[in-house]
Write a structure and sequence with these properties.
This protein is an alpha+beta fold. It is 25% helix and 21% strand.
């Protein structure tokens, strides 16, 4: 008789576990509180989701995201449970959760991974401060009224050397600044004259017409920045 009681108890326990698994994998999240999501070792939302730092949410605003964690730790059915008050931060929070992986819940008794609803609270660090505007400064300041991209006039000795017969080489230093799309944010600036006004002018025109790849930030995203390079003409 005791053996029958033990068998019946095991059957009831398995039935309860099966019912729990079905409830957890239902299409809608339960109305009560959800357990906080757990991450596998090494998963850091701050590093995986740099977009959280680029929203208009106030500092300290919190978005609570609910989602279904599958047996492999992949989230699905992601939605906002409690809004941060900022649509952009809520959107960034749900997008972040989709990219993350979580530790799945396990079934009592045999530790088999099961689906479960979990939640994650993400806090805003506040609107990211605008980086200082990239800017090129000429190495030599022109006369009042001249633009920063005006050719720098060579000194008398250098001009005299250019009059000597024979082939010559020319080098003009140029600085350009671009935005995240690689478009110029200011007129190219001459940082060092070649000594030939016509060549300096041509170097600036060529720099204005060129296409640029924006520099990358620490997170790997395109960022505004400036380039300094030389435009040269080699003697043949």
């Amino acid at each position: 008789m005791r053996g029958w009681n033990l068998t019946l108890a095991c059957a009831l326990l398995l039935a309860a576990q099966a019912h729990l698994a079905i409830a957890q994998s239902s299409a809608a999240a339960p109305a009560g509180s959800l357990p906080a999501a757990r991450f596998p070792f090494g998963v850091d939302p701050a590093k995986r989701c740099p977009e959280l730092r680029h929203t208009n949410a106030e500092e300290g605003a919190v978005a609570v995201v609910q989602f279904l964690v599958g047996t492999s730790g992949v989230p699905s059915k992601v939605s906002i449970r409690e809004s941060s008050g900022s649509e952009s931060f809520d959107a960034a929070a749900t997008g972040c959760v989709v990219k993350l992986r979580f530790t799945p819940a396990t079934r009592l008794g045999d530790a088999v991974a099961i689906e479960s609803w979990q939640q994650l609270a993400l806090k805003s660090a506040g609107p990211a401060s605008a980086p200082p505007a990239a800017h090129c400064d000429p190495a030599v300041t022109g006369q009042p009224g001249e633009s920063a991209s005006s050719p720098v006039v060579a000194d008398a000795q250098e001009a005299s050397d250019r009059k000597q017969p024979g082939p010559m080489a020319a080098r003009a230093g140029v600085c350009v600044c671009v935005d995240e799309a690689g478009k110029l944010t200011q007129t190219p600036v001459l940082t060092k004259s070649s000594g030939v006004a016509a060549f300096d002018k041509a170097a600036l025109e060529l720099s204005s017409a060129a296409h640029y790849r924006p520099p990358a930030s620490a997170s790997g995203q395109a960022a505004p920045g400036c380039f300094r390079f030389k435009v040269g003409l080699d003697a043949k």
